[in-house]
Amino acid sequence: MRIGLLTSGGDCPGLNAVIRSAVLHGIKSYGDEFVGFKDGWRGLIEADYLELSRHDVRGLSRVGGTILGTSRTHPYNHPGGGPENMIRQLERHGVDAVIALGGEGTLAGAKRLADEGLPVVGVPKTIDNDLDATDYTFGFDTAISIATDAMDRLRTTGESHHRCMVAEVMGRHAGWIALHSGMAAGAHAILIPEKRVTMDRVCEWVEQVHSRGRSPLVVVAEGFIPEGAEEALAGKGTESSGRPRLGGIGEWVAARVEEHTGIETRNTTLGHIQRGGNPTGFDRVLATRFGIKALDLVHEEAWGFMASLSGTEIVKVDLTAALTGLKTVPMQRYEEAQVLFGR
Amino acid sequence: MRIGLLTSGGDCPGLNAVIRSAVLHGIKSYGDEFVGFKDGWRGLIEADYLELSRHDVRGLSRVGGTILGTSRTHPYNHPGGGPENMIRQLERHGVDAVIALGGEGTLAGAKRLADEGLPVVGVPKTIDNDLDATDYTFGFDTAISIATDAMDRLRTTGESHHRCMVAEVMGRHAGWIALHSGMAAGAHAILIPEKRVTMDRVCEWVEQVHSRGRSPLVVVAEGFIPEGAEEALAGKGTESSGRPRLGGIGEWVAARVEEHTGIETRNTTLGHIQRGGNPTGFDRVLATRFGIKALDLVHEEAWGFMASLSGTEIVKVDLTAALTGLKTVPMQRYEEAQVLFGR
Amino acid sequence: MRIGLLTSGGDCPGLNAVIRSAVLHGIKSYGDEFVGFKDGWRGLIEADYLELSRHDVRGLSRVGGTILGTSRTHPYNHPGGGPENMIRQLERHGVDAVIALGGEGTLAGAKRLADEGLPVVGVPKTIDNDLDATDYTFGFDTAISIATDAMDRLRTTGESHHRCMVAEVMGRHAGWIALHSGMAAGAHAILIPEKRVTMDRVCEWVEQVHSRGRSPLVVVAEGFIPEGAEEALAGKGTESSGRPRLGGIGEWVAARVEEHTGIETRNTTLGHIQRGGNPTGFDRVLATRFGIKALDLVHEEAWGFMASLSGTEIVKVDLTAALTGLKTVPMQRYEEAQVLFGR
Amino acid sequence: MRIGLLTSGGDCPGLNAVIRSAVLHGIKSYGDEFVGFKDGWRGLIEADYLELSRHDVRGLSRVGGTILGTSRTHPYNHPGGGPENMIRQLERHGVDAVIALGGEGTLAGAKRLADEGLPVVGVPKTIDNDLDATDYTFGFDTAISIATDAMDRLRTTGESHHRCMVAEVMGRHAGWIALHSGMAAGAHAILIPEKRVTMDRVCEWVEQVHSRGRSPLVVVAEGFIPEGAEEALAGKGTESSGRPRLGGIGEWVAARVEEHTGIETRNTTLGHIQRGGNPTGFDRVLATRFGIKALDLVHEEAWGFMASLSGTEIVKVDLTAALTGLKTVPMQRYEEAQVLFGR
């Protein structure tokens, strides 16, 4: 078969490892050929692609980003989009099937396209870990690793200066990165979109820690909204979509903590470093296994399905399952973490 | 309650994170007190322990090793061992329950002791990932991370010199570390105890890679035995227990590859660096959750049970379940990896 | 002798390694005793100190921050300050000499105090590398290492999205961190306080790189002021001291680049992670050697002198030499880097 | 000009950064063209080379190894070698000058060839830091960084098991890597080729540390020979060249320590990971500056000269200066480190 790959949406460490293993498995096990569509659905729609040989994917398991480029091109709304045009393009260029790597939006598009006849399978990708129907996706562990390392650093400087340190991490709608990196770094408060907490409560945790001579660490997901502060934030810190602006909430929390407690407080917004660079071993293994599975799904002609992690197994699930809703942090997980707050 | 903690067997990154979260959770949620028995069962048998306050466990989530020390003292065979003596010691020192962190041997001991009246719960620990009844244990991810990083380094020097590089990793009876780190590093052959492979087959993979101008990477678990080479190895490379000696098989494989293929080949035995140093974020989260769960098990009086990972949940399992046998690499997982060999 | 140590000003990876080696060397070679004054000059003025035994400094060579705490307390202006009060405190507590670790301000204070009779020697500390009279100070290499690693990560995500990435690093008055980390990461433009560059020129570099299909990386020191933009910045982005506000210039540059070139541009302000965490091997060696030298200076009664790096040697220099002015990036070094801009 | 680059001898992190900066500087500043000879002098002698465009060197500053490959081909003894043949090859392929990156042997060859008419300049390369006439060479800092990190890991597992840990590092004739990484890691004994020490003395240091409840760390350079043990070692542990065999001395020292002190002792031989992988920021900057300087030397027609680090400056030195002898660790540096031994 001749199979096209594309990566769509925000990038994520591990995308290249998926591409590599799918290509190597296909060449060796099935004698497949591969093309890579550039910049997500745009490459498919505009037939902008490159041939992918074994040589092109060598050494890619450890390389962050995506060699195919990515974009937020919508598969239906973009001029020339939609299943009919795409099927025509595939036929014209002799491509038999598509493996689409992406997040919720990409997979929703892939599902609809599959239902309308496009031979497409999916690979789930979300650095935020907010996709249902898979235990984890690659990229999340790398983000945790980077954020944890950064917080370890913040703590030593915080302790030296007797400061409160605030770290803002990614997570607009789901607080997984904050929860895991905060737990790993021994944070004294973790603030996530799923759980409204008043700033009074946050300041109480900070003061408990400070009163014992320690430097408090507060981890804030970018989508956290403090209880009672909706209006104050709404006035200046949100995007047109109504979401708090990247980088905004950490500064805001730090200012409030300093104001209310009198403790010198500094924010660091980790930003884009959380999604870049070499994937961790965990993410490389997961991505490699996803790539192998996705290729097998193509040969099963399991259109509209995707690779998924369940426990330690890679399984096949209907893309519909990935789209039942955002996987947010359950309150039981938050409470588990909370036993370590304050102190 | 007054609760004693002990760490037994080989050390593992994450032990301190378990200790920390159990202590902090106990102090805050239940008003518990804690002691730490030194060097595993020895500390309990000889009542050699230290008090563990909140202060003593601060900052421990990121610290490798175990502040309690560890040893291979047998809970029954050691003078003064056995449940009656231990129960007497606990009573004498006012300790109400024990949390034992250890591998298969430790947990088997804990189970037997629990059956005979000792109030003990377990936390599974094995850097080799060879314990059944839990998806993963802490330490394994850190070992993968270290081994993968080392192999990334070996590859650049291998490519520069057109050499074949061999990396020997831990794993006497189970090849999990070799499997995951090899897959992460893009190894061209992975050799594990669970699967006999002839050296001819290994050399074939090496030559395929070399003939395409690349530098082959072969990952060998320390317990791998090549098919047909049992005698050759038995003559010089094994311990009294009949196991291949640490560091032996990598050198042996490298020598055979160089001899048979004529390709310059170098072995590196990663050794003890695989089990030391700061745990990864993944392991810190897992260890922290295990500690919280173990403490809850104590308050449930779930003697003879342990904390365990199932998918993304921490659950309670009977220690018997951990002892049904070694969790080795299933052939289906090996075949999945094998599609990337040679090339 | 009984010797007091203090750390003053912003913290820096390596301070603990200095403390450790001075204490161990003193105990072993001279039979000295040590105290640590807390939070810089404040601890000396208020006689707030702890005894430092061999046990207290164990394992410190790899630990970031300072176990003594630090502050910006002025040695003269603080109530109870000045040489007479300090000498009285030292006598009262039986302290024979002081080793002061700090930057320009601290060393200027130490010099003046030494001239007025305080038995004090210095150890230079500046993460910004802006102290004259020493080739390097510890902390700088760690900052370079962290910034370079972060930029490696920014580049992979930048390439995937065809974005221009801006990284703001420390350096209010001297661009050393930007120069070295930018050169290490292969930046396409490096903007430092010592060199006014117009935004037109910056955009030209960015466009050159983008036009060849690459993702431009622009590194900006926090003290950079674009030529012709002084007024625009002055209106909103500066502190009362007239310095551009931490975190301000990177965002500003990113906005201008996006506006002028139409290329999607994202800023990341690395912030406090640059000064925290474990020191690099280079910094540990330098700090350890500084500590040994400082202790020897005490026994030489070389009051008013400090340890310094010259080539590969640790030498003794008069504190006056450290105070002749800020060590800024010479234009010849900037031009050397500039041959790699744009492209 | 059309300039050829070659890398010869053992590989070293930073070689690619030199290649990159020389090529980019030449293309941009002088309009040069570049070729890369494959596998050191062999590529020049056999005219086996590739063209090097700007595209070929992109992203190389952070990549370990050498894209040109390396070998130990001798420039005179190899068939077709010697200045006349080489000059003929350069003329035939239109190459005007050569930049040779290598260690003592390579630079000696380059010097002799320059004297006999070959237009060649040098870039010093030695991971062991044993070249005179330059303060440091790239690769050394990366090796220190890797070895220090490994020792940090060894210490945590050593402490948990109350073991003595031995780490064998590179350094056949010069103990720089052992000295710096040992000092950085807080080693309790550092054993180098330049200083004979009896095993009794080593055991004394180990016992001092162990008696205070700590886990001793002993760092051994591969070329260390214990005083009084020359014969014992000569019998089994040396190569035909008379040098102790790689990997031999660490095991030997560990066995002796365990035997004499009764303390459980484990060796880890770091091996090839010390020379592989991404260079540190320090090494990337140094290598980048060397590349720029080497290109300038070519345009100065400074045949027989090389780039060198003096303090913080890159200077031009006669290759003869690099060949006056091995730069070994001076006793004063060893004694400086020794104040921290034992304890």
Summarize the structure.
The structure is a homotetramer of 343-residue chains. Helices cover 39% and strands 16% of the residues of chain A.
Description:
Four copies of one chain form a homotetramer. Chain A is α/β, with parallel strands linked by helices. Chain A has two domains: 2-138 and 279-322, Rossmann fold, CATH 3.40.50.450; 143-275, Phosphofructokinase domain (Rossmann fold, 3-Layer(aba) Sandwich), CATH 3.40.50. Chain A has helices spanning 15-30, 41-45, 83-92, 104-115, 140-161, 176-185, 199-211, 230-234, 248-261, 281-299, 331-338, and strands spanning 2-7, 33-37, 49-51, 97-102, 120-124, 164-169, 189-191, 217-221, 265-269, 305-310, 313-318. In chain A, helix 7 (199-211) links the parallel strand 7 and strand 8. In chain A, 64% of the residues are buried. The model of chain A is unreliable at 236-247 (pLDDT under 50). Chains in contact: A-B, A-C, B-D, C-D. The interface between C and D is large, with 46 and 46 residues.
Please render the helix and strand layout as text.
Four copies of one chain form a homotetramer.
Chain A: E1 2-7, H1 15-30, E2 33-37, H2 41-45, E3 49-51, H3 83-92, E4 97-102, H4 104-115, E5 120-124, H5 140-161, E6 164-169, H6 176-185, E7 189-191, H7 199-211, E8 217-221, H8 230-234, H9 248-261, E9 265-269, H10 281-299, E10 305-310, E11 313-318, H11 331-338
Parallel strand pairs in A: 1-2, 1-4, 4-5, 6-8, 6-9, 7-8
Antiparallel strand pairs in A: 2-3, 10-11
Return the CATH architecture of the largest domain in chain A. Answer: 3-Layer(aba) Sandwich
Mean residue pLDDT of chain A: 93
Q: What would you call the quaternary organization? A: homotetramer
The CATH class of the largest domain in chain A turns out to be Alpha Beta
β-strand amount of chain A: 15-25%
Cα Rg of chain A: 22 Å
Number of strands of chain A: 11
What sequence of helices (H) and strands (E) makes up the elements of chain A?
A: EHEHEHEHEHEHEHEHHEHEEH
